[in-house]
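Box S1 | Example of a co-folding query
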Amino acid sequence: MTQWEAVIGLEVHTELKTATKLFCGCPNAFGFEPNTSVCPVCLGLPGSLPVLNAKAVELAIRVGSALSSRVQASQFHRKNYFYPDMPKDYQISQYDVPVNAGGAVVLRSGKVVGIVRAHLEEDTGKLVHKGGDGRIGGADYSLIDYNRSGVPLLEIVSEPDISSAEEAKEYVSELRAILVATGASDGRMEEGSLRVDANVSVRPVGSTELRTRVEIKNVNSLRSLGRAIGYEVERQISEYESGGSILQQTRHFDEASGKTLPLRAKEEANDYRYFPEPDLPPIAPLQAEIDRIVGELPLLPAGRRVRLFGLMPGASSDQVEVAVTEEVWPYVVAGIEIGVAPELVLARAANELAALVGNAGFLTPERFAEVVALEERFSPSQVKLLLKEAVSFDGTVDELVAKVGLSSSGAEDVRAMVGEVVEANPEEWRRFVAGDAKVAGFLLGQVMRKFGKAISGAQAKAALEELARGAAGL
Ligand SMILES: [Zn+2]
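Box S1 (continued) | Returned holo structure for zinc ion
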């Protein structure tokens, strides 16, 4: 029996987070009423002329730098084809000279996936099919929304270095994290900000040949991507094993059946009659501009992992993965910067904070750091309670503590509480002071049973030992 392996390359289209579209001043926003964010340029009306959005170029360079691409002078081309969602009958895209060439994404596993290019292009409008099952085939009629027409896209093309559905998902989630960290994209796959085309072929394990590939178009969730690739790989293997062959074609993933279905024969580049866009000059970014953009890059997810594992070599990688996400990272930084033990920051960030993300209210990164720092005075369960309460409380940390009604257990208070237990258990106390370490557990147990809501075990232990030293006259 032949053993097979998958050969997968991905094309990820991400909408860039600019205020306006790529070649006109229309707002680049999701969720507007259909056809309200349009003008003669993005409707492709005769006589209108495109003007390049400098912010889109900057974001493209930012992503390219984050992917270690070579940022270069580039040019726009016209990609000619007819489709109702594209009123000009051509798409302005970059062809043989993209803004970013080469690069790589390093997966969590350490595997390196090469990047071929990351180029700029304009998005098309959106077709909505009415009637039937919502697909073009059985629809009664179709509507066109041009709000998306002209929205800036960055298309990131990987080398065919990915060898499983699982690895494809890992690649897209790492790339998504980079895109969000650079501020280039909001990464919302469910709103279409990130769409993936997968080029899939299979070959016998050990061979280096590249067999006919099939392109699966427009997958818009990680789960669907995994399912689509999984199905397609199995389909190709069984086709070859039964003596058949694979046609070069574009396929669509059908969510309901979990199958890929043929859309059309795959076009070759020369079917698109590419030629340089005569209405736009080539782009030649100044080296000083590129240097400034590179200098402003934030710490990327991979660098965040390195920083956390550097501080805590034994950290749980599950907690680290939560901590390096865009929503949680600023809280981690704030906690570490004010000097709270990194282990404590990581634990509270990956658990209590991560559960609040999106609804954190008044719990800013600074407030989170202040509250976690209180774990020197309060027990872990008290700090967790304070974090929860901080979401809806607009005041100082002291006011927050007072509002929650926790007694602030300073050293004095702790000594008093431990002293109370000591007085109630004179025999055990005498043995403890005489050096019998075995009764320590009993005494601490008594303290925690009585005062555990107000103090931590570490505080109780420290106070107990301090009192014993005093009693022994040391
Ligand atoms: Zn417009």
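Residues 21, 24, 26, 38-39, 41-42, 150 surround zinc ion (CB under 6 Å). The chain has a mean pLDDT of 92.
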